[in-house]
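Contributing: when you submit paired examples, paste them exactly as shown. First protein:
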Amino acid sequence: MSHNTLLVFEVTILVLAIFLGFEVISKVPAMLHTPLMSGTNAIHGIVIVGAMLVLGLPDKGTFTWVIGFIAVVLASANVVGGFVVTDRMLEMFKKREPAKPVDASQNGKGDAAP
């Protein structure tokens, strides 16, 4: 397979993946959007592992090092963001404690003797 044929094949796969991803995401109801995105952000751990493997190669140029470093930084931010969003989302489902009644003798307006 020649280099040009391989490039056309890879670009075709990329374009099809973009269209498929757009169609799948556009069909997701708004209620499921946040849990779905927080989960996919957490999956970015795979990107971190891949970038670290690339950075661990013995023969890498400056361009490869810079792209690998940027991939590690951005994927790490995405993973952390995914966990933060998931934590905030789960906080909405926790039971809240009912407000405690205020005791009149503790707020300085009670019948305490001087």
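Second protein:
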Amino acid sequence: MRRPKSCCYTSWTPGTLPRTRIGFCLQGVVEQCRDSIRRIDNLVALRADYRTRVAECGGSARLMSLVDGLFSSPLLTIPQVAASTSVTYPTAKKDVVRLVKLGILAEGEPHKLPRHFYSPQIFDIAYGEP
């Protein structure tokens, strides 16, 4: 029995994508992979930059931990920081203010309670246009 001729059955040479619907889809996959790799590389470089900023200003291990946590969840509140680091609210607030001064965090809507802070650079890399 002969197979029906279809767009799925074409000749293929290594290094090229077939000119079919499958090839078109694969080209999209390749482009998405390249974009993901670029974003990951940028996030890794940004993490190193953030850690350098914190180290240069004499930041504590707790501050380094907060920076690392931003790459899992780039949005936080002071009560969340207090709970996750087992410190008091005033200490957590000082840590957040320090990260704002270092340009790592920015305040979200200032009149919304609880105040929330985010890392604009992480958001730009993760969710911005390629």
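If you have annotations for the second protein, write them as plain sentences, like these:
The helical segments are 21-56, 61-70, 78-85, 89-101, 120-127.
The beta strands are 75-77, 106-107, 116-118.
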